[in-house]
Amino acid sequence: xxxxxxxxxxxxxxxxxxxxxxxxxxxxxxxxxxxxxxxxxxxxxxxxxxxxxxxxxxxxxxxxxxxxxxxxxxxxxxxxxxxxxxxxxxxxxxxxxxxxxxxxxxxxxxxxxxxxxxxxxxxxxxxxxxxxxxxxxxxxxxxxxxxxxxxxxxxxxxxxxxxxxxxxxxxxxxxxxxxxxxxxxxxxxxxxxxxxxxxxxxxxxxxxxxxxxxxxxxxxxxxxxxxxxxxxxxxxxxxxxxxxxxxxxxxxxxxxxxxxxxxxxxxxxxxxxxxxxxxxxxxxxx
Length: 286
Ligand SMILES: [Zn+2]
Description:
Blueprint: H1 2-11, H2 16-25, H3 42-55, E1 58-61, H4 82-85, H5 109-115, H6 118-126, E2 135-138, H7 148-159, H8 168-171, H9 173-180, H10 186-196, H11 203-209, H12 227-233, H13 235-241, H14 247-250, H15 258-268, H16 273-285
Antiparallel strand pairs: 1-2
Helix pairs in contact: 1-3, 5-6, 12-13
Bound molecules: zinc ion.
């Protein structure tokens, strides 16, 4: 909804709300270029958050070309702004799109082909020049008008980055599926999840925030108490993992990361009834 409101402010310049915000926050600029400013209201800061989504789906339609900047603004279909594709253009005088349009309202082919990479030049020459002023459209809809549905899709990808960008621990889908389907108390599953994400209140971690708490393991007093140390390496933990039937699940696994250990446990279970029971037992023992 914030993106939708941002869309209205960016495109309906005559609306009261657009005028109000312009007067206060971007008098000499545009909504898309406006900055947070001092003493800005919560509503304004929220709108700027919504703008992050909006920016990902906007496309300028070129009319006169005098309000669209060549490098920074999105105006070439199915392409990121030129600045992200081609770092610079040889003629530094070129700033606005109308400088690429000749007196006959056609693309100035010579200027374009001598200043841009061939792929970008081709895309520019394929871009339509319309009558009238430049206008902002929403590229994700054929109508060109912002819709909450397509905005939501962008927001979803924005806040849920692709799997390959997530830390390795989050990517092991099989491991998480196995964890959440274990037949044991939810709090045990949550505990394992926290351990995998290094989110337990172990002394090594507490010490980083509260220096008066020693970081050493209170049981063995030999090493820093990390999640890994506490649940696997410390002698008491280690003795537990030597006992059947969990001993064959664990085997000798040298790792500094609990989640790798847990992933190993899950993958060793072979998904038999006994194997799954052993995983539950390992979770309870943790
Ligand atoms: Zn210890």
